[in-house]
């Protein structure tokens, strides 16, 4: 088992892990059938940061917040500096800038892959705007998810669309500063239902490879075909030096966007094991959440998600590497599997609670949040105005 | 091959096939990411019927229109009679009444399966209202799709929800008139992402069996797990006397709601073969469309869908039953498969065009629709007001 | 959390749980590509029982052994009585009799569903033989898995095959004694690749319902479409009084037949939760393993599997029912989910070890098995003869 | 529609298409449950070529035969030259050499990825032997499918296995002659059930990219996750210059290895469309079959498969490129889709029959084969000896 000194190392590693929460998870979201609005939902990016600050206050592990443009667009000169300052005052930093090229009417048939050059230009201009915002906020990461694709065979030329994609990405890549990255996300399907232009890690990888070292792949844990071994992809991308970030969430069926760790906690553990195995914990791999809390209270759901990532990481850190390597070398299938399962079966909640307490935090972030009265306060104060949501 | 007299029989069978189009397919729809509005979309149920009349005018095969309550609610006394008359004047009949227990804020955690008895009562009252409307319109079918389910393990008790479902269904069943049916739809997932309360045909079948002969199962071709053999389910339900209706559409991934026949035309043919084999063509099985034309023009997409069902039916009717039975009896796998493939590989478009011409229709409904100028006319006339859509 | 008295109840419940191991898991198995033989594998049913006795000796939880006919056929009069006595002397009882209608050349196109009546007769005769063996061994359960199906559309008539299936089952059902059951297994696919004659729980349920109370459904955890919510099926079958048995194993992709609990331990926990919720633990639901240990040592793999079921059961028993019901009633999604996750995240290995020690067993069955020297002994002694395997 | 001159071009293109049949498809095969032997099955590589010659004789489109080592190993000096001459005398050429590193006992835990260097060496030596055979037979393609993978999390280190794979591939790559290629196949799962070492096109692509221009990817149409858009992968690999070959077959569920075109003929058409669109028809992309005719007669099944590929190709060639491009440019989703569907719905069997007749062949290869009496002759003559099969 794990010795005392190992436990210290595990705790130290846990303390280094930062999880980025997405501004949009604090707003209303739903399915195509219905958005169920919740009381107290933020009405602007500043209020989203206020909520994110609560998540960080109680977990100590969520110091950055991803923005989504235009949902978090701040008008006026100095707007983003003001937003960054608002974050800083709450112990937060602004994280990745997420582009949106899917909610404008022009994007019905795609954005950077659209058959019409004018629409492609508009999309690239939006991506330039995102880089401008990065310059203003100090964000290092431009996260690109394209809803581009087709619904019917023949609707558009699959190959031409790849050419257009490559061209658009190249233009944006050139615009990146020296310390900025482009994070390219892939997705199996939705909203396109026949072909998606970046459907799998292979496609994202091939594009990033040609673009250069500042282009890296995002693994969204909900964006794969049924049965896909995600940790294999994680291991492979780390081996290739091309894993840029995670979008964490859970799925049972499609891109369900449930709380990470809720559907298959064993998978999350296996993913974190490969992250650690591949050196991803001590690297610039970004651990982001990308979730939709359609029916559950949003802030505690995000707190729970952060905790779930921490617990999976703690378990993965507890894997006895020496015993594992020995069993693997010996070809002892059961013994090797048992080493991994031993770590997984360990209840790490006390350990993670200790890490919190040693940092001056309450051991139970959910209880602390509920005790704080924040939920009631925002429900009371945030009345009037337009509640934030995907389309708002 | 098929003899001259057989061709007559095929044509006769084709002439009997009626396909019900859904009022909501004429309105705007989309994904959770975006609804792309289209010009000329109807603003009320009457205009939806006007569009549906065009589909029937050019195909001769779409004489009934399914309504969705409350989207097609008509206010005022005599409203539904007026709607029925509007339909009748255009050669149409009002078809199945589709209930909606998923777009009210109260339904966040379910409707007839909700933990709160008051919400369940509200849902059942809505279903009663739907039966009232059936009484007013003369509709024979109450089509029930419940979005009920849970997103997280433990969220609610799976078994209690079944008990509540059974109770709610029983109350509505009792309310049905002698010539009215309850059609119960199942769906693999969405909008619930952990457990759906009627997830598969087995669950729908078990409930219908207990309710009685007026309860039957709806097969929506987009509501199955990947790889599911849908024609097997069709054959089984017909054998059990429990197939009530189809909701036709296409899917590559999930409930994509594309045009029927667009993703896997061979599957549609196999389904229609089992329909015919099981006597479903000459029975009261209802052939309904349930589609979302998110990016393609809606009326011609519906016309194309009707044509696709007709062509699949024609091919299925062309299967040489005697040759097939002989090969099956002989255990000649290749010969039996070849009989089926021979029918499938036949180009039946000339045959179906002949059927149209013999009924005084243009052989090419799409061309005829485009020539009619209807699309331009509605785009010009239907301005102002609220365009119909899922949420409208 | 769980009180002291609750822990006693949990322990008591765990002590009642008996897991049936399958004789064939002790023999060689493999994929269609290769069977990798292992040293010391049994050469006959008696040696299989010797191995099964070791599993029971160290777990105290595997007192019955399922047989597979003809793999475990014992020639000569009194043969099965001798086998039963061999079992009894080792503290075991003979469990379900599993039929095999898939490895004879006559079954190329099916068994009870075959187009040729002579083959169907042969299959039914084999099932009668299985009931005869039940009479001889005192086994209560006839477990039926049919490999029947078709590989190509049109190969055979789907509906006729259902009629033949119903007829064959009815004949066997009539032959059952008063205290005997028929357990009907369904499987999504394999070895048939187009249509399987009992592909899902709905089909098995519909047949069992018509047969009568002695016919019940078997849930093999590897026999579902990707994404299927198995615990929902468990809950539903229990609610209907039609859950007869489990065939436990794990899958990542298809019917992988890995050790139960190895691929998705959270799913196994959820299944066991529904078993307990539905009264299945204190009923005659049989908990069987059905696994293939292709590359790992067989006996310790089976021991590990028994332990995995026990641990999942222990966690499920720890769910705080009152807290859960309260959260569900309140519609508190996160709180309800947290109650379930709290139990799942508990490390129950010490608790299960205590149960063992209180029964006079070693707390670690795997260590005890390795210390026993049994693996070396059988490798040395079981030389010559034909090692048991699927085809042997 | 298609003009007279276009039809000539379609015919000319069809005449250039060569489909490679696999020697192993002529031998017995089965599932893990049972191999059903067929009469007249070849007993050695020479007899397999005799059967392959019949396929080519009646289709005129199957001039090359892939070998599988060691199944087609010919002992003695000059053995392979003799085999090549046997082929030549029958109008055939020997095609790709397929390696086998999965049926030796040493390969239980892998071959080129095995934790033990001695096993890896043995595997690489086998690959060297395959290249030696290529030198002897004049084969240009070394086709590599590795069954390597793991069944349980932790069983081996995923990343180390990639390193070993890269090293083994590099050694073999160096050994290739100037006009020889390495074709790397990927497979989603089976026989490994947790992680497969080359599970997807991305992994195969990444390795081939590093190896160099002589390494290309094989797309086996049965080796993908449910729902995967295979034609997208085909388009992408062609765009990258990395599509080396197809292994054609059909699947409903997993790697079912049914006749190509039997499960989803529309998908096969879409794949062939992308092949043509990407210039793959006039390139060195190899069109191979890789199928298992477990229950149907083997030679006619292979003939049917060749015909199915031809028909799909003919339909794809009939797509009206100009009309399609115009509709795509206009963003007319329905019109673009209709162009593609128009070609697919065409009955091309008369056209392909004409191509045969113009080449002096019978228009119906299946009828011609049956009339030839070959099946009866081999059933009568090939008695005694060991029938060829996967393990023989």
Automatic annotation (TrEMBL), chains A, B, C, D:
Single GO biological process annotation from the record: L-lyxose metabolic process
Claim: Isomerase is one of the keywords in the record: yes
TM regions (residue ranges): none
Annotated GO MF terms: L-rhamnose isomerase activity; metal ion binding
High-level lineage: Bacteria, Bacillati, Actinomycetota, Actinomycetes, Kitasatosporales
PANTHER family given in the database record: L-RHAMNOSE ISOMERASE
Keywords carried by this UniProt record: Isomerase, Manganese, Metal-binding
Name of the protein this chain belongs to: L-rhamnose isomerase
Stored InterPro entries: L-rhamnose_isomerase, Rhamnose_iso-rel, Xyl_isomerase-like_sf, Xyl_isomerase-like_TIM-brl
Keyword hit for Manganese: yes
Pfam families (alphabetical): AP_endonuc_2
Domain Xylose isomerase-like TIM barrel: start-end pairs: 80-254
């Amino acid at each position: 088992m794990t010795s005392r000194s190992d436990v210290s190392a595990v705790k130290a590693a846990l303390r280094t892990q930062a999880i980025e929460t997405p501004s949009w998870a604090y707003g209303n979201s739903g399915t195509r059938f219905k958005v169920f609005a919740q009381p107290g939902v933020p009405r602007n990016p500043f209020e989203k940061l206020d909520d994110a600050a609560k998540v960080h206050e109680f977990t100590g592990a969520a110091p950055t917040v991803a923005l989504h443009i235009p949902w978090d667009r701040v008008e006026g000169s100095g707007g983003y500096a003001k937003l960054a300052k608002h974050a800083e005052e709450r112990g937060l930093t602004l994280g990745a800038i997420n582009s949106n090229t899917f909610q404008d009417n022009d994007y019905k048939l795609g954005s950077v892959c659209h058959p019409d050059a004018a629409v492609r230009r508009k999309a690239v201009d939006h991506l330039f705007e995102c880089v401008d915002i990065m310059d203003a906020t100090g964000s290092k990461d431009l996260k690109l998810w394209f809803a581009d694709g087709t619904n019917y065979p023949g609707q558009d030329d699959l190959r031409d669309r790849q050419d257009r994609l490559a061209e658009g990405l190249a233009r944006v890549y050139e615009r990146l500063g020296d310390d900025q990255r482009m994070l390219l996300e892939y997705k199996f399907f939705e909203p396109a239902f026949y072909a998606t232009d970046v459907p799998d890690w292979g496609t994202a990888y091939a594009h990033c490879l040609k673009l250069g070292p500042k282009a890296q792949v995002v693994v969204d844990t909900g964006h794969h075909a049924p049965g896909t071994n995600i940790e294999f992809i994680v291991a492979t991308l780390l081996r290739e030096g091309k894993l840029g970030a995670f979008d964490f969430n859970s799925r049972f069926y499609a891109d369900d966007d449930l709380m990470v760790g809720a559907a298959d906690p064993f998978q999350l553990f296996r993913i974190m094991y490969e992250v650690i195995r591949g050196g991803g914990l001590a690297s610039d791999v970004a651990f982001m959440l990308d979730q939709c809390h359609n029916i559950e209270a949003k802030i505690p759901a995000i707190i729970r998600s952060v905790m779930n990532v921490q617990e999976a990481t703690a378990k993965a850190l507890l894997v006895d590497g020496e015993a594992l390597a020995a069993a693997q070398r010996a070809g002892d299938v059961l013994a090797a599997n048992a080493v991994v399962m031993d770590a997984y079966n360990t209840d790490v909640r006390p350990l993670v609670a200790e890490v919190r307490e040693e940092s001056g935090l309450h051991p139970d972030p959910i209880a602390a949040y509920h005790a704080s009265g924040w939920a009631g306060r925002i429900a009371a104060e945030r009345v009037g105005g337009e509640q934030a949501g995907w389309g708002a």
